[in-house]
User: Fold these one by one.
Assistant:
Number 1:
Amino acid sequence: MHYPESTQLNLLRRTSSKFTVTVIVDRCKECGICIAVCPTKVLSISNMINKHGYRPPEPLNIDKCIGCKLCEYNCPDFAIFVEKVEQP
Amino acid sequence: MAVTQYIHPLDKHLRLERIPTLYCPGCGLGIGLASMLRALDSRIKEGSIDPDKVFWVGGIGCSARMVFYVNYDSAHVIHGRAIPFAIGAVLANPELKAIVVGGDGDIAGIGGNHLLHAARRNVDLIVVMFTNFVYAMTGGQVAPTTPRGVKTTTTPRGNPEYPMNAVKLVTSLNANYVARASITTPHYIEQYFYKALGKKGFRFIEVVSACPEVYGRHIGLRNPVEMYNELKKRVKHKPKASIEEAEIDWDKGIVTGEFVDRDNPSYIEILRGEQSEI
Ligand SMILES: Cc1ncc(C[n+]2csc(CCOP(=O)(O)OP(=O)(O)O)c2C)c(N)n1
Ligand code: SF4
Ligand code: SF4
């Protein structure tokens, strides 16, 4: 599996022409709430295992993201956030 | 040292070395905390609150433990005594913005008497009570909010007691602001907490939370997503609900909204003689 970006913080990040969704991998506890609340099914469980043994979500269908931030607002662990892509 | 790099928009409000929290996967408390921090962030950004004057107090319990995670002055005090501790602090330094967080057991159970008198005196502090229907931290004993009939570790044949409605209770006293929200509608927690931060006197917000680990186990909703969805189904948002409508009933529905919003003279205003009711 190839992940687009990996820094010291271990991020799962995907960007569409409009939005970037970032998952802070080692904060995730695999509760599944973000996946359940996303109205357009952007997120799915990845096959990666974080340092606490949980599988974080991955914004695979990023092109469907509408930027509603429901995933960010409903995450109990500060593990996912959404940014608007600045249009040039 | 652990992570010091700020990446999530709320990171600067957190003691990152203590994140992830000790909360169980899917615990609603983190959603509530994040919503409160977004409101505080807006207040700080607009310049109406000085972060150095913000002061958090929590007693004992999973909910009260929030004070451990916020990057502000905070006190973790004995069970049920967060309100009197905060009253002492604001009387000594009325410039402080005191935020009390705690569970239904801590605030309405063991600390119930303090809640009554702080509301009656309209003391200048915000109390955010997280109702998860059980004493969660200690493994699921009956709480003053546990619905009738639920089997807990201390009510193995089903809870025989009638639960209390803290919103109705506080409304019957002299609080300036009373609202209820649910972790399934984080934007309302944010909106109400934002409003509370701008007011004086006693402000009470009940946040109905999901405890999949302990309460969920008691009622057969151990999966965090199922617990979240079941709570969401029961929440009825009524923006202009009367206090008679402020039900909190697992079967009949949980009414959320704002129930009191007024500007009676606050305790500090009365003590300073700025406003006299006498
Ligand atoms: C004086 C005292 N009595 C009892 C306890 C044990 N105790 C710890 S947490 C707790 C209940 C917490 O329930 P609640 O306030 O509803 O918070 P929650 O964990 O559900 O968020 C109890 C009884 C204690 N720590 N101190
Ligand atoms: S912002 Fe909304 S649409 Fe985009 S991933 Fe999050 S929940 Fe889904
Ligand atoms: S026991 Fe319940 S309230 Fe406490 S952290 Fe776990 S899920 Fe949350």
Number 2:
Amino acid sequence: MKSKTEQFKKEARRALTSGNMQLAISRASKRFSQLRRQAFAHLPEGEDLRTRAQAIKAEAVERQEEYLEQFAAAAEKLGARVHRSPDGADACRYIEDLARTSGVRMVVKGKSMTTEEIGLNGALEQAGFQVWETDLGEFIIQLAGEPPSHIIAPALHKTQQEIADLFVEKLGVPLYEDPQKLTMVAREFLREKYFQAGLGISGANFALAETGTIVILENEGNARFSTTFPRIHVAVVGLEKVIPGLSELRVFLKLLARSATGQKMSTYVSLISGPGRKNEVDGPEELHIILLDNGRARFRQDAELRTSLYCLRCGACLNVCPVYQRIGGHAYGWVYSGPIGSAMTPQFLGTLRAKDLPLASTLCGACAEVCPVRIPLPDLLLTLRRRIVEAKGHSGWERSLIKGWAACQSSPGCYRIALELARLGKDFVPGLLPPGIELPDKNFHRLWQDEYQD
Amino acid sequence: MNIRIELLERLERELQALQVRTYRASDAGELRETLAGICGPYDRSAVACEDRPFLKELDLGFPVFSAREKDTWRAEHWRSMQEVQVGLSGADFALADTGTLILFSGNAGGRWLSLAPPVHIALLPADRILPGLDDFLDRFPAGDSLLSLGSAVTFVSGASRTADIELNLVHGAHGPKELHVVTLLFAT
Ligand code: SF4
């Protein structure tokens, strides 16, 4: 995916003024958060599971090479072919070559952030293959030519009306007004594609070293279709997805769906071990597993940031983030958005290129509170902020400003005067506050004095 | 048969919360009646029954979908998909805590019978109900014993669903629109 992360400020401002989208995103993220909260309220061992999940990931990342070797050996024994890709370009090339030599013309895809990360669709299309995203949300944004706006609900920003119009325009169907009908249009349209496609691509949520199994979670069934009917199945798996085995998997299966959508289990959890077998009635004839580095080995060496590799891509941190709730995923300018996007994008693309992202946080800590693998997201953002400053240095006026701010903060009187000035100033200086931000009538000090003291 | 009624009730509660319809059958006759009820709107020929030994013995009178030739299965599946409205399969295990069915692709129905037809009916022997995920995974302490079960072990919790259009829940995004679970209270 092409990056627009340099334009974060501009895009964020645009998002803030686009009422519809902002409403859709804040509604959806609040709903997901609420569902998550309810799910964890019924899971007394939830906190303990999160601690265990973190410990498992820490160990798995620590011994990653060992587990990857074990995984590759086990998967190959089952008849899968395992390929290590140092970067996205290599992974794309591998799949292109495979498709070409196998005489494939059409490719179907299950939802995978990792393939978004390496821009696989664009590469395959450019090479002359027809590519279909099959997850409904991904299908919608593919037709619209837009990037995903949320890790688990990529078309969150589109209204029903927009989707109805899009289907009329791109698929030539009548104008349908309800989600049920629209979903059925996509169902029927994509059904035959699973059979026409020679190659199906998926990501993986986990790779089990012990057995060479890949694990895919989904709700729609499109990943099951894409990994069953095409003759060749290619799974693109980030190096960090490897965990020891089944006894570790159970911890994540209890956490992941609950964190993402509040479901006790995703509708479908597929444990795929090798290609279809001789005694089975269906399943792909070939399974290729691409273990993708694309920077991950480097992130692993970074003692301060390596916890970001624990991420399960559940989206919980996006949903609770006051910044994400207001600006949505597009403003972040690359695949991963929200707090985890702010922590990952600078590592993928370079600290200075994505220098605005770590700043787009109130450091309220809500993300770390919900993360199923307890990634200390605010600490990661602080580390990145420090590195940005180290890399580009402070300008003179920034330094004076910070000194002034510090002096002001340490004197209560001065602090109060500054606040009042800001309150007055916002009426006279348009644009002093970002759009959509209101100051309350009384600040906290006042409120306390007037109403709560004694 | 040793039936833990408390487990069965928990499973049914969870399934119903996922909008799955649940039934019980205490003998083959009841099962036939239940199936006739569910399949009522469809032609008998639109039902594909999995080729499992215990289903064969029950002799339910539906067309049996059996293993096909390796090089023609895709074309045959595609053709069947145009005709088959109901997939009738066994369930290998169920988890009461989460309302989950576990299906092994190593069985005759493979992966597609529980996936492609708009209606999926799973026949679950009552002694295959386990409390939760741990109880299932503990049966495979060595890990690779799981591999013998098939190239795809699938956990199914409810019918296919999506909420990608303004968070409206729609069933049957790609997989089945309806899921029915019939628990068999007799030895199979
Ligand atoms: S950082 Fe944590 S909360 Fe955010 S997506 Fe990753 S696993 Fe989920």
